[in-house]
User: What shape does this take?
Amino acid sequence: MIFAISCTDKPGSLELRMATRPTHLAYLQEHMANFVLVGPVLDGEGKPCGSLLVVDAADQAAAEAFAAGDPYAKAGLFETVTVRPFRTVFKDGAQV
Assistant: This one.
C-alpha cells in the first residue's frame, strides 16, 4: 500500500537538518526499494523546510514505524509528521 509522509521542520532548524543529513541519507538508502518519491520541501528561498516521502509499506503501522525511524525524526527536527494512505492517479504524464 502507498503512503504519503509529510513532515514540517521546526522553525529555525536548518542547522539541525544539515547536521543530521548524512545519517538521514544513509537511512533512506537502506529503504530505497520502497520509495515512489522522496525529497525535501523548500521554502520561498529554496531552503529545505520539511520532507515529503511517498512510500510503499505493508500497512499504516509499517509506514509510521518507517517515519519514526528516520534520523531526522529521532533528532527532533520535525514540528509535525502526518502519514496517510495515498492513491496515484497520474504518474509520468499518464493516468494510471
Summary: The first helix runs from residue 14 to 31.
